[in-house]
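Milestone M4 deliverable, item 7.
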Amino acid sequence: MRNWITGRSSLVTLSFSQMMPDLRPNPSRDKQWPGAYCQDSDYGCCVPKYGYPAEDFFVESFQTFDLSINKPIVRCSNGKPFDANKLEKIENNINHYWSNLKCPPTDGVNTWRSAWNSYGVCSGLEQLDYFKAALNMRKQADILGALAEQGISPDYKLYATERIRRAVEQKLGVAPGLQCRDGPFGKKQLYQVYLCVDTDAKTFIKCPKLPATLSCPASVVFHPFYTWMLNSTATAASGFESKLLLLTETMLK
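Output delivered:
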């Protein structure tokens, strides 16, 4: 397996996202902020079939990344088929922190199957270890806690992008990449944070390269997320979204 210096890395996305270089073909993880996802969705968000998720950053993906082309490596041919039964030991953790809030509600299995079939098979890890590694790094990063320590909360306010970046760097020792998306009323909102992790899947390091598509303006909205924002059916989504946008408009004035 190749060293990340010769071109292999990992990328993590958690609506805050994360990247991680490794000494082997590594999965990349993304962390996603559900408040931004729900506000951005045309259909609102729904309570997953397995119950309410955590009010925290989620793992969105855990990818193998090739630095030489700055793209994820996908669907390696030597991977084992996905087996949902192998996730029973981490069922509670994965339900809370690798959630799918799309409408209509889902049980999450298709999301995890897609992650494994796309990226996990390229990670060099067994299936359970792949998902455990992503969830453990999500917990260790504690992006929400890092921001809170610097007075940054999901409260509809505008925050300087550089202040957000420095808050994460102060806690983890490395600067993250930030991804923003369209928010309410012409504002951009914080959506993902990318971090790089060494081969031990414990040590955050400076990212050798970040995706060229990352983009945020000088200041962004940190949109709230509460489980009461979630709908139990897809048909309720449009009503939920209009109420959420009205509240956002009021708070931004």
